[in-house]
Each structure stands twice: as C-alpha cells, then as structure tokens.
Amino acid sequence: MVAGEAEVARVSASAVADEGDPRLAALRTAVERLRADLSGYQAWLADRQVAERELTVLAEQLAGGVPEATLLSEVLLRIAAAVGSVSALAPALGQLREAVELFGVPRHRVLPSVRHGAS
Q1: Continuous segment of H or E residues that includes residue 82
Q2: What is the pLDDT of residues 9-54, one digit of tens each?
C-alpha cells in the first residue's frame, strides 16, 4: 500500500468509527488523499502553497462540522486553480470535487469553447 493510500484508509476508518455524517467522512478522505498526493508530487508547482493552504482551511472547517456550501465551492475553485492540469493530481482532485458535490454544491457545466468567425 502506498503511503498516501494508507493515510486515506486511516482517515476513512476514523471517520467511520466516529459514526458521523458520511458526507463529512467522504470529504475528509478526499482532503487527505489530495494532501498526500500533493505531498508526493515532487515536481515544481507554482501554486503548491495555495493548494496546501486551502486544504488546511478545508480540514479546519471539517473539524467544526458541516462547512457552508459557499466555502466549499470557493475552496474547491482555488485548489483546482492551484493544481492546474497536473494529471498526477487529477484523480484526487476529482474525488475532492465529488465529495464537495455531496453537500449540494452543483457541478458547473463547462460549455465547449465557441469559435468566433467560424461559419
């Protein structure tokens, strides 16, 4: 088992043991997975500190119970912008997005780009 997977399993087990809201357990697991994957990603990442800070903010909010949907949406947006299109982090970022959606934060459809001047 990879170190990041072990941490995810530990967090998942502790969330289940608490018999808390399953949405919180899913979000905690997603936060810890992305944190572990980000830590394991050794290449230079311009906004690594932004992503780490936002994950910390999210973890702190989870400690206090169910976070507000607005906060979840804003934090997810900042994290997604910070990690950009790093394919190695895409699965963990996707898991975080899915966990945020459990709280009623809608998935925004990204419309295909419009080609100007094309007939």
Answers
A1: helix 69-83
A2: 544 444 444 458 999 999 999 999 999 999 999 999 999 999 999 9
